[in-house]
Design a protein that fits this description.
This protein is 63% helix and 6% strand. The protein is mainly alpha-helical. It has one domain. It is globular.
Length: 286
């Protein structure tokens, strides 16, 4: 269901882009798509290095934490992917994330807080969640979604500047300039909401993949509850940065009501409920 939801959401933002491009003309559409995909292609290949640098992450030698490397290697082998490189972030807040453009370039990073405070059973679920992101190539999915949303935003800026300068394709055809400007204001918002929804669906999918990989949905559920209690929005540690919050297993920024529509993560209580609705597949002591 989450894979289908991702496909439908990507189709929706693509349709929005095509509709917008039809209003602006083929030239504008081609230029916006080319620019957005060029920017995001660069992000796809090099953003993992930038993210690790922003987080102050350092690669963890295997001899310093052999048990962590064993857990990652074992779960990666069961998932059918190469063992990712392991990094540690100097942050007391419990969190973790995965990056890398494909399984051959996978990276998993853990904060010092999560390694110090989380029991092994729960940490195993966290590792499996991050490996699921790598297996599902979620960095690629996020890049495509960002490129499409970015193209819509570029077209919107073109319409807005055209309206300010008194030009625009719609004026030439007798259309409503106000209608075009309203569309230009609302379309990027719609594309962003779709992008956030795709991110939330991938989190659900990674939770499900982790539960199946470990055979212990409750372990990840307990980990998510612990992570929810450990997040402090007032902290300004490296994992509490808006630019990288979407990568984390638990968002450092909570929001209720309408703010949930603008969140990259589903509510933790919803994720826990879904995990606990899954029957244990098998359980191994970690």
């Amino acid at each position: 269901m989450n894979r289908l939801k991702t496909f439908l959401l990507l189709s929706l933002v693509t349709a929005l882009l095509v509709a917008f491009g039809a209003r602006m003309g083929t030239g504008w559409l081609t230029l916006a798509i080319a620019a957005a995909f060029a920017l995001n292609l660069g992000a796809y290949f090099w953003s993992h290095k930038l993210v690790l640098r922003m987080q102050g992450a350092e690669e963890m030698p295997e001899e310093e934490m052999p048990w962590l490397h064993r857990e990652v290697a074992q779960l990666a082998a069961e998932a059918g992917i190469p063992k990712p490189r392991v990094y540690v972030i100097p942050d007391d807040a419990p969190n973790a994330f995965a990056t890398g453009r494909n399984p051959e370039h996978g990276v998993v990073a853990f904060t010092e807080g999560i390694l110090r405070t989380m029991p092994r059973r729960e940490l195993r679920g966290v590792i499996a969640h991050e490996l699921s992101h790598i297996v599902h190539r979620d960095i690629l999915v996020a890049t495509v979604a960002a490129a499409l949303a970015g193209a819509v935003s570029l077209l919107a800026h073109g319409v807005q500047w055209g309206a300010l300068l008194g030009g625009g394709r719609e004026d030439e055809e007798g259309g409503s300039p106000l209608g075009g400007l309203l569309f230009a204001l609302l379309a990027p918002l719609g594309a962003s909401l779709i992008q956030f929804a795709i991110s939330r669906s991938r989190e659900y999918l990674a939770d499900e993949g982790a539960a199946r990989l470990t055979g212990d949905p409750e372990g990840l559920a307990l980990a998510l509850l612990r992570l929810g209690r450990g997040q402090d929005p007032e902290r300004q540690g490296p994992t509490a940065e808006p630019a990288t919050a979407s990568l984390m297993i638990a968002s450092p920024f909570a929001g209720g009501g309408l703010l949930r529509w603008f969140s990259t993560h589903p509510p933790i209580e919803d994720r826990v409920a879904r995990l606990r609705a899954m029957a244990p597949i098998r359980h191994r002591a970690a």
